[in-house]
Amino acid sequence: MLRECQWRKEMAEKWSWMLAPWTRCWSWRGNGVGQEDDRHVRANDREYNDKFSYADNHIKTSKYNVITFLPMNLFEQFQRVANAYFLVLVILQVIPEISSLPWVTTTVPLVLVLVITAVKDATDDYFRYKSDQQVNNRQSLVLRGSLQNEKWMHVRVGDIIKLENNQFVAADILLLSSSEPHGLCYIETAELDGETNLKVRQALTVTSDLDADIAKLADFNGEVICEPPNNKLDKFKGTLYWRGNKYPLDNEKMLLRGCVLRNTDWCFGMVIFAGLQTKLMQNCGRTTLKRTSIDKLMNTLVLWIFGFLVCMGVILAIGNTIWEQKVGRSFRDYLPWDSTISNNNAVFSGFLTFWSYIIILNTVVPISLYVSVEVIRLGHSYFINWDRKMYYGPKDTPAEARTTTLNEELGQVEFIFSDKTGTLTQNIMVFNKCSINGKTYGDVYDEFGHKVEITEKTTCVDFSFNHLSDGKFRFHDSSLVEAIKMEEPSVQEFFRLLALCHTVMSEEKNEGDLVYQAQSPDEGALVSAARNFGFVFRSRTPETITLYEMGAAVTYQLLVILDFSNVRKRMSVIVRNPAGQIKLYCKGADTIIFDRLDPSNEDLMDTTSEHLNEFAGEGLRTLALAYKVLDRGLFEEWMRRLLLASTVMENREEGLAALYEEIETGLMLLGATAVEDKLQEGVPETIACLSLANIKIWVLTGDKLETAMNIGYSCNMLRDDMDEVFIISGHTAGEVQEQLRSAREHILGLSRVGSDVGLEKTEMLSDDSVFEETIIAEYALIINGHSLAHALEPELEQMLLETACLCKTVICCRVTPMQKAQVVQLVKTNKMAVTLAIGDGANDVSMIKTAHIGVGISGQEGMQAVLASDYSFAQFRFLQRLLLVHGRWSYFRMCNFLFYFFYKNFAFTLVHFWFGFFCAFSAQTVYDQWFITLFNIVYTSLPVLAMGLFDQDVNEANSHRYPSLYRSGQLHLLFNKRQFFLCTFQGIMTSFLLFFIPYGASSLGVRDDGLDISDYQSFAITIATSLVIVVSVQIGLDTYYWTAVNHLFVWGSLATYFAILLALQSDGLYLIFPSQFRFIGSARSCLAQWSVWLVTLLTTVMCVMPGIAVRFLKSELRPTVTDKVRSLQKAISKQSPRELNLRRVRRTSSRRSAYAFSHQQGYGELITSGKNMKVSTAAPSPSIHSPGWVQNGTGLLENGMKRKDACFVPSEHSGTWEGMERTEQVPETICSGSKGTQQTLIDSRGNSNGDI
């Protein structure tokens, strides 16, 4: 009965789902609780699963389909106020009583704009549709009695699918069995959390026995009851019911969509969540319509202009009413009222006149404005696509503008949110240098003893003596190889430690062809280094490790693994060598290792410490190595106590930790390693340059805290000369609040929040945007994922935002994709600043979609980020050119275009307003209808397009050299409401002069033959000619960078005006269309008079001279940064250009070890248990006798050691915030303007912060 009620409820939900389809597009964004309380999935039973109407595996990121495109697109387009405004005008123009212009003049341009925009939107969406189809049509092996190839879109919940090595997981599946022992499999989750290290998943024992038996898998009918769809990547709760038994399920049994199967031949899984309900898609966010700030401003301005238009219409309508009542009555015989005006109603005449003037004056916002804007944006997009300096040759990847609507927004970015792995880094770990017994290796020196910079052309060490070496490994210091060949004991022991102390698995399918399965990239780099220097890790069992030391096979007995933990920050192994000697090998964070050294190592520790400082100063990840020879009797006693501690039920972990501490003392220091987490080329320089442009860069990464901090130091986002680095690591909302409060107090310099002085200061500095400018000291804020979850709650998000914005650097680590989007949304909503998100993996899609601008890097983590982005390229360093050159130019050009466009149209249109006072407010136009039609389409369209496409205030070299030029876009200086009022005022004054100077001249002047020149047609031609010349001269003055296209368009448009003018008023057209071309011969007659040309010259001078005078005075008295740079540019225009001098500064830093944080706890237990071992015959492993007490100890330890997931919080920093260690050494700096810039831009003509 209960099951029947549940079924009825589910059927009701199904019908409500079908009857309200619009809810479907929203439901996947949430956690799904509204649709499901829990999920029931039965394997191999589609009929049962279909009752619940679960989502299929089809995904859709496109917005439209064939049916919805037209209504949705028109709805979006008419959200633009101007389009709605022109639609109203079209309706008015079809009313003959009020229309003084043909309706075609507005309808055709409006339809053209709608069609062009619709085609562009359809094209963009079509590419999204194609990418969706590419994913949906991927092939997967699905069990249908037998294995069959099915497209991903046809995979359904409850299906059993087979995955093969290096294949993407098609849906969220429950792991059933695999090719590895005990149902283990290895996955890479780079697209989910940005981490490339392998993770282990293990099937239930009861299902792993299904193995690859198709018959057993086809008969499997287990039912899973689990949580509903949600976006929590690290959690899963469910239960498997099979054969009358219940089996608990957690996240360790799940393979999520977006993962890649690695180092596992095959595995089978049961689909639990599919399509939009997978955790990856739940984190992807929603595709939204992005509009630039200029678009939004233009919407506001259109409303203002419409209000101004109504005011002018009201004034002229009132004038018409008064004139008709006072004067018009005397002219009824000559100017009879229309029949529609009943009872001689002058008020009704004024009402009709109002609408007539609304139509005549509508050209203050011509429809051609939006056509021109779209053309300019399209041109800017092509400039980005064609930029060879943003082309990445190794991958044959050009930059791509995937949208054409956001180009000018690139010139206004204030916040950049960047992923780390694959975005800032190459995702490659390289063994770079080491220190062994007080001597450093890794640098190259010339014959004079001077250090030589290592480049790709530097000769590499010859490893031919080692037939098991890795051909891809590169090292340049041959002295280390010589030390190996000379059998120096300390060097050999150093690499022996690297080959023994790890949790790497070795796979050797062919003789000598070794593949290391490292669960952290650091481990892989170190073991690979040992391999190349002659200490080859060949194979392992739960009890032994086999090395090939300089070609000879040596097997060590593995006695104990003292596993890594976040608190210990180190790992140790205890082994017995063939000679029977027992040794402990330990590697870990240098601060931890140095505290456990034997006092006799003091001198060596000091020397090694200096080397570590040098390594860290170069941005390398350091690790200290030590060993200890153990007495057999003492070790046996310690081992008995360890076995006892591993069996107790209470305080087991504390007891084991104490025993680990006991034996890891009195260590002998061997040296230190330096691994480079290779940054992409130019990342530090790019970050430094963008920082000088006042762009704040926040790093949002799924990596662990220490890994993220190391990259922060490598990029110089974190430096040891910073005043403080705050680490927010609280586990509760109260702890996080206290840490944020303490950090904020420290920055503000407040001793007590409740003090009167503190309150007064807080109120005084409540305006964040102002106070942030006053912060002189430099701070960094680092917050981890579980703390961020509390900080993003409504009660704390403002405190988080305020504290973060007071810091120069913000790093969020261990964050989920949805948290990335929430951080972006927090800044986007509250700071009212333009945000840009950049990433390369599917875990970055949500923040890319949330930010104003999304940038995808075509890296090693697939193409999901690129497909969701607005712009894409291959290297992070191209972001500098995208923003400082293309973005700033686009913003500058668009602002100049809008300023000029509004100016010329006010000047053109308001002549009608002045003329209204002299034509009895009769809605008579000054110009003939052809001039009105062609003015914005032909006479002035091309020059302003040329300016909007090609103009440059400064060249690209100076755009890079002086990043402070970018500030104008962030402050909206070039086009804002004030600038709009200025261009409006200039246009009004120009229209005033354009009308009254010719009016005054024609009223008093006569022709050469004595005839009157004040006829309407000559007056109209004089004003029209003056207008075209004035706006052409003005655009010439507004253009800073002249090209052949500019010259052609400006002078060509003038010539075209006169050619068309003479043609339209020729005898031939009049004879063919007498009703359309009534100004016959007027142009020839008018332009033949020298007085007309003098009036035109006087009008032009009077219109442009005030602007020239104002511009000259501003540049001389209050020059902007752009004015200064332009002056310098002109002064050196004849000199050879000097390249920007980017110099990487060597940073002296406190030591940092990233090993303990990029490693994962629990692998020691996995290795000693033997669960991940499989029999291999490729590599022979000599066997030695293993004492029985060791065998038993291993078994007991397997039960005693448990994996922990606690995050590291140093005990010495248990206060409200955590500070970073700093040395007394001050980093070398070359910056004179700001101590905060370690990578700076040097030019003899400016200071280091890019100012003039």
TrEMBL record:
It catalyses: ATP + H2O + phospholipidSide 1 = ADP + phosphate + phospholipidSide 2. The active site is at 419 (4-aspartylphosphate intermediate). GO terms for cellular component: cytoplasm; endomembrane system; membrane. ATP binds at residues 419-421, 523, 564, 587, 621, 701-703, 814, 820, 843-844. Mg(2+) binds at residues 419, 421, 840, 844. Residues 1231-1252 are annotated as: Disordered. Pfam families: Cation_ATPase, PhoLip_ATPase_C, PhoLip_ATPase_N. It is found in: Endomembrane system; Membrane. Gene3D superfamilies: Calcium-transporting ATPase, cytoplasmic domain N, Calcium-transporting ATPase, cytoplasmic transduction domain A, HAD superfamily/HAD-like. GO terms for molecular function: ATP binding; flippase activity; magnesium ion binding; phospholipid transporter activity. The chain crosses the membrane at residues 78-95, 101-119, 301-323, 354-373, 897-923, 929-950, 980-999, 1019-1037, 1049-1073, 1093-1113. Residues 41-106 form the P-type ATPase N-terminal domain. Its EC number is 7.6.2.1. It comes from the Eukaryota. PROSITE patterns: ATPASE_E1_E2. Keywords: ATP-binding, Magnesium, Membrane, Metal-binding, Nucleotide-binding, Translocase, Transmembrane, Transmembrane helix, Transport. Its cofactor is Mg(2+). Residues 866-1120 form the P-type ATPase C-terminal domain. It is a multi-pass membrane protein. Belongs to the cation transport ATPase (P-type) (TC 3.A.3) family. Type IV subfamily. This is Phospholipid-transporting ATPase.
